[in-house]
Amino acid sequence: MDAKQLYQQLKKINEPKGYFFNENMEHTMFLVEGLIKNKNRYGYMCCPCRLAHEDIEADRDIICPCDYREPDVAEFGSCYCGLYVSKEWNREQIEHVYVPERRPVEKC
Prior knowledge:
Layout: H1 3-14, E1 20-21, H2 25-42, H3 56-59, H4 69-76, E2 84-85, H5 87-90
Antiparallel strand pairs: 1-2
């Protein structure tokens, strides 16, 4: 599967749930390509913005969409890596701020 196909597949799944791709397509496609690289490397699509342990059980919380996406988007309008955002974030109706890492230190 190439990046455009994965983008379309994930868009179809996530938009009805209220999660949209960042409209900065250069940024978004870079991250989608990172998901594909991680799938090829580890066998699962872990977040390209975090270091993986190369163990699916240890990385389960960072398999995209990660466990932190929902609270990040709810609080900041964007997930940690900026792949998934709210409609308001894309429309610049809310401030684009740094999203702090929620993953516990012991898992990093």
